[in-house]
Amino acid sequence: GQPVKPGSMGRPLPGYPIVLLGADGRVSEEGEICIDLARRPLGLMREYLDDPARNASAMGDGYYHTGDVASRDAQGYLTYVGRMDDVFKSSDYRISPFELESVLIEHPAVAEAAVVPSPDALRLSVPKAFVVLAAHCNPDAETARAILRHVRERVSPYKRIRRLEFAPLPKTISGKIRRVELRKLEQARGTDATRRPQEFWEEDLR
Questions:
Q1: For residue 172, what is the DSSP state?
Q2: pLDDT, tens digit (0-9, with 9 covering 90-100), for 75-94
Q3: 141-152 vs 97-104: helix axis angle to the nearest 10?
Q4: Which positions ≥6 away from 49 have C-beta within 8 Å?
Q5: What is the SS3 string spanning 39-76?
Q6: Domain limits, the chain
Q7: pLDDT 10s digits, 148-171
């Protein structure tokens, strides 16, 4: 076995040549998790049947593309960042919704959470959390302040959540959160600073 690192997925299994590809398509220490097809593992499928477009997308440039993003440390351990579609930038910093959501649900008042980019005139976008509260918790400014403080004390300053809204989360039939709907909701508002009911911005709570 190998030592367990909290928060890490561990090292790749023997026989699986995992590489991380950055946005420029080059091997990096953070990027999309890919499998080098020059050393194709036996456990990897050959192709999508009768779907050349999907094959070209998933297996282009000599790699099998998973659509997941991770970082690799000096010991070769991988840490999950998020789905490529979900990761976004704020003030040119890469933000992982998965990381922020993991911190959010550690707060006793949070039952579920989803983080998406919210348009911002200065930073282009900032992290916003949609939160479903645990039973008997009030969707008020005091609760929002406590949750934002909880996150602020546990992440780097540039990652902190700057907006929060108490609202139900849209889900698929299988129960997965549909972040795409939340992203569209935020994009539609643009830089309109009008607060929705039960929405709180960091600057409102100081």
A1: -
A2: 999 999 888 888 898 988 88
A3: 120
A4: none
A5: HCCCCCCCCCCCCHHHHHHHCHHHEEEEEEEEEECCCC
A6: 18-83, 88-205
A7: 999 999 999 999 999 999 999 999
